[in-house]
Amino acid sequence: MMARKQILILLLFVLFILQGTVFFWLTPSSLQLQIYPNFVLVAIFFVSIYYHRHTGLVLGLIFGMLHDIVYYGEMIGTYSFAMGVSAYLLGLVFKAPRAPLPMMMTIVILGSLLFDSTLFGIYKVFRLNPTSYNWSLLHHMLPNLLVHFAFALAIYVPVRKQLELIAKYQRRKTAS
To answer: Which domain covers residue 101, as residue numbers?
Structure first.
């Protein structure tokens, strides 16, 4: 069963690599400055809902910091904070080990908006973002939300099954 957890970490790392490399080849050049996909974030939302919010928090902090270091932006730690807090809050509010598809897609939409709004707020507080929230919502957050939604639809069944197996094994292990 430990192999399943290691495969999950490997999957997150592969998604991290894909979101920074392959996706930009597939994106039309006119949209490359608008869409910044975060496939790892979507997968971490699944972990927070189907497995445990603390695991989602830790994975969000780790992969967010990795994102901050590799794709250094204006500040170090913003993605780490936003991913960790978003994953934890969604796991806290929507804890549902058997969340159906419509509920999970709603969670992905809310989580994507929460993540992007948190980043917007942090950059606005430190005066690194001169745009308004409405402009950012229309030009960045909603296109990202659509990409996250489509990706969540694509991975829903396989990721849900794997996380349910990990959670089931963990419950059996603690019960015995």
So the answer is: 38-160
Which own/partner pairs from 155-160 qualify as long-range (CB within 8 Å, at least 24 positions apart)?
Answer: 155/42, 155/43, 155/46, 156/101, 156/104, 156/105, 159/43, 159/46, 159/50, 160/46, 160/50, 160/104
In-domain check, residue 132: yes
Enter the pTM of the model.
Answer: 0.92
Does 9 map to a domain?
Answer: no
Tell whether 28 is covered by a domain: no
Question: What pLDDT does residue 82 have?
Answer: 97
Q: How many domains does the chain have?
A: 1
The vertex-45 CA angle with 101 and 138, nearest 5°, equals 85
Weakly modelled stretches of the chain, pLDDT under 50: none
Per-residue confidence (pLDDT) for residue 86, from 0 to 100: 97
Q: Assess contact for 127 and 15: CB atoms under 8 A.
A: no
Residue 143 has which token pair? 């296109």
HSE-up (13 A, CA, CB side) for residue 145: 20
Of 58, 65, 132, the C-alpha closest to 91 is 58
Residue 2 lies inside a defined structural domain of this protein: no
Residue 149 tokens read as 């939604």
Coil/strand/helix, residue 71: coil
